[in-house]
Amino acid sequence: MHRLLFLLPLVSCTFEVSNQVFSDPEDEAADTAASQRCGALTLAAEGTFVRQGDAVQGWRGQCEVAVHASAGAGGSRVSVRLPDWSGQSAARVRVLDLLGQDLHSPAVLEPGESVPVDLVQSGEFFVHLEPVDLDEPGHAYAVGVQCVQGCDLEFTRYPLVLVHGAAPADYVSLFQYFYGVREHLQERGYLVVTPAVDPFASTEQRCAQWSDHLDTLVDDGVGRRFDLIGHSQGGTDARYLTSRLAYGDEVAAVITVAAPHRGSAVADVASGLVDVTPFGQELVDAAVDGLAALLGLPPQDAVGALASLTTEAMADFNATTPDVPGVYYASWAGRSCGVLDLYCQRQTGGEVVAVYLGATFTLLSIAAGDNDGMVPVSSAQWGAYMGEIPADHMDSVGQVVDAVNPVFDHRAFYLSEARRLAALGL
Questions:
Q1: In order of start, what are the domains of the chain with their CATH numbers?
Q2: Is the whole model's pTM more than 0.85, yes or no?
Q3: What is the mean pLDDT of residues 203-211?
Q4: From CA 254, how far away is CA 2, in angstroms rounded?
């Protein structure tokens, strides 16, 4: 919906046209065009995005302000330059944040000149170009953006939103769900937000809250669109929000990590949808008890929390939650190994499933093959499948609590994803 563009100052365009009557229609049209007067200017449709280090060409229509978005890192300084301006009068250049507030005093520039701008927030900003003479006819121009200070800072065009899974956003009330990830990315310049929604709730209930969070971020000028990175149920939440709640205009990318897109046999067995004979009742009971302990829930409540993640429920979910055109979807799967599976451990650099996921890992290994202790590798694949990470289900977000993990550095993983999104222009 890109509502913020329309929050910027708008003024109406008026024309003063001669009332003289002409005998020749072609002469009349030519004279009318020549006598147009713009009492004020209106914003043109947004032009091509301006990447740092590049310049784009455009055409400013009469009575219009040319508008382009660019992006940079908070704490850096950029130079907004005017390589070309073919109008007869000089250009007035404004650089604004997403709420329409000037980041620098409006500057009058001639072709070849530039204005320095200090960015206070990572992500997008707007460049407005208008002629000093409001009645200037339409003409061609070029505008560029170049970093000149603080250029080691990193950024994505759109803010990164970390979408937590079924457990609370503050794991065991002590540590962030994505342990240390926000700080690790912010230190490098990225704009990262970590909203919280109700744990152990349905996707519908959680997504009503996710939508409120995005609306607030838009209204506060944090971003127009967002890159959602969802772990576990957070990944399916992100898909539901984008598709079923029609947030495709506000979501640029959906990256999922260990998300059960096609359900999990753990949910099938725990919900009584699958005969437990192949697994043994003791294994099933141990899996449910281990899951309940992990989630901090009574066993029966843990079973209820899994009801929407059965293979049947997720098949229905997928049928009614199509991908939104124009949104980038990508996924990662976690893969762990049993204590005695030395071949798997050699493939994954020594990854071994955590003790508290041992029973669910064994159950899934029998039912679905490679898995992370909660989600099969085959179930975690959606959109552009990026591959496996050597991590069990909680290792993939640094829990519980992986300050140092010699097998999988979850902070480095999320930093690499941020950089990949930046390279994609997202």
A1: 3-9+45-149 (2.60.120.380), 160-423 (3.40.50.1820)
A2: yes
A3: 94
A4: 18
